[in-house]
Amino acid sequence: MKSLAENIRYAIWQAVASLFGILAFIFLFIPAIWNDKMGDDSPAISLMQLTSDSGGIMYLGIICIILGTVASLALTVLLFINKSNEKLTTGLAIGSIVTILIGAVILACSFLYAKGFTDYTALSLNQGVIKFEAAYFLVPVFGLLTIVASYPSAMIILHHQDLVDKEASKSANE
Q1: What spatial distance separates the first Cα and last Cα of the chain, rounded to whole Å?
Q2: In terms of Cα–Cα distance, which of 28, 50, 59 is closest to 116?
């Protein structure tokens, strides 16, 4: 890292990314989807409850969300204690971005491959046979916000190379 101020700035971005990842995980447990087979009195089921009905693909999404959040938390700690170098920072940030992206996409499409919902069509959504709660949309949204907040740490090598190139260009022009 170049300076302590820059290190703190990246640490704050990663702390925000970690918070968004934790929120994405928390929203897995909040009611997210309802269908007419459940009855009018029954509450909507969460994405975590839908996991057992998906044939296993949602487990991959949940594991990816967890791994991405853990990588983001680890990078946050390393940046705050100033024990990270450029390659480690970029590697952990890119790892966090990729795993959260995979998990968010899988969980955003979860009702498409859940066995209890595969017999519904797009018309079922218009007729109110399937209803989505806010948590169904908040998991992928917070996953994407994690990606956005991790982006500065993922580009640290390129940023430092641009600064070196800028100095070399400035000295060549003088």
Answers
A1: 28
A2: 50
